[in-house]
Amino acid sequence: MNKQLLKQLEDIVNRGISESYFPVVSKNSVRIKNMMVRKSKKGYLVIDAKEGEQVAFTEFKSTALAIAKSKAKGINNTDKLLELEHQMAKHYYDAMFYENTINKTTDELVRSTRETRLDIALAETQRARQQIDYFIFS
After folding, report:
1. Which of 7, 13, 68, 75 keeps 20 to 30 A from 21, CA to CA?
2. How many degrees, rounded to 5, is the angle at CA 136 between CA 132 and CA 53?
3. What angle, 0 to 180 degrees and rounded to 10, lies between the N-to-C axes of helices 108-137 and 61-72?
4. Backbone angles phi, psi at 98, to 5 degrees
């Protein structure tokens, strides 16, 4: 094919992507319009590439993507999403603790109560994750 036609096709595709809210993955980052999500040693940074400033720091990638998409749409849900992430992290770490206790204990009463608490913690983790996913997929 002609190089000029390939260049025109590439420009059309790139223009369409830049105007949409589709995530574009490149090397170590995910871009949604002018927002960028980048992995760091302790979590994920959400950066506004247009302003050149950090918008948020999250522990989970799903929360970072939700914040990036909301900001790209011009909606500021950062505080709500960070609160949901805090709830999800709390219940997730509780579930890890309960699971470890279940595996280590020899007392059946302790095992029984921790299994109930584990079920509750997993349900609450899932509930918070679903709310975060709503922001990503809406």
Report:
1. 7
2. 95
3. 20
4. -65, -40
